[in-house]
Amino acid sequence: MPETILKLQDVAIFQNQNLILNNVTLEVKKGEFVYVIGKTGSGKSSFMKTLYGDLPLKQGEGTIVGYNLKTLKEKDIPYLRRKLGIVFQDFKLLSDRNVHNNLRFVLKATGWKDPSKMETKIEEVLDKVGMKTKGFKFPHELSGGEQQRIAIARSLLNDPELILADEPTGNLDPQTSVEVMKVLQEINESGRTIIMATHDYALILKYPHKTIKCDGGKMFEVIQKAV
């Protein structure tokens, strides 16, 4: 049996005092690819933020990559995030340094010391996303799709157990979205677990996976044809 990467039981998700989602029960196993869909404002981002410790879990039970979200302490959040790869809609690359140094910055910040190991890791993740020749470029010299590939490469640096992708194609045109999606597919096929929030139904139809919908303060699995 594949191990459980994420388990939520009767969870309520709050943004400040506002109840966003209620009675959330979900289990994600190692190697799964799960979409989280729903209209803007339906709770997708609040759900993702709860998973990486940006919003506290106040009600219900939840564990993710071995961490208990209910008892998660402030000082544990950086360690939790090292076991997660997080990809955002707006790339979040540092504009004042090239791709290579963007990735090196993350490795140093997460405790890497050996320069040659850092070099090897950077080459490896750039190769995985098809960007091996772009390490010397600055973010503004790259297209949106290329920047998102770099953001995906960055999410792989610490060999995460789970990748959380929050609208990773939200700022990209349809063709580029498909290219980025192919990269995520390959990463998933190599055994990594991915949870991806999206409102891009074309991608969901093209690459069907387990789909969870946020609607009316609830989360429930939808059968692909009914999306």
Name the overall outline: globular
The percentage helix is: 25-40%
Assign the structural class, choosing from mainly alpha, mainly beta, alpha/beta, alpha+beta, or little secondary structure: alpha/beta
CATH architecture descriptor text: 3-Layer(aba) Sandwich
Instruction: Tell me the major beta sheet.
Output: 6 strands, mixed
Strand adjacency order, main sheet: 6-7-8-3-9-10
Give a description of the structure:
- This protein has 227 residues and is of the alpha/beta class.
- The protein has a single domain (4-226), classed as P-loop containing nucleotide triphosphate hydrolases (Rossmann fold, 3-Layer(aba) Sandwich), CATH 3.40.50.300.
- It has seven helices and ten strands.
- The chain has helices at 44-51, 77-82, 99-109, 115-128, 144-155, 174-189, 201-206, and strands at 4-15, 18-29, 33-37, 59-64, 67-68, 84-87, 162-166, 193-197, 210-215, 218-222.
- A six-stranded mixed sheet has the order 6-7-8-3-9-10.
- Helix 5 (144-155) runs parallel beside helix 6 (174-189).
- The radius of gyration is 17 Å and the shape is globular.
Descriptors:
7 helices, alpha/beta, Rossmann fold, six-stranded mixed beta sheet, 227 residues
Describe this structure in a few short sentences.
Belongs to the ABC transporter superfamily. This protein is an alpha/beta fold and 227 residues long.
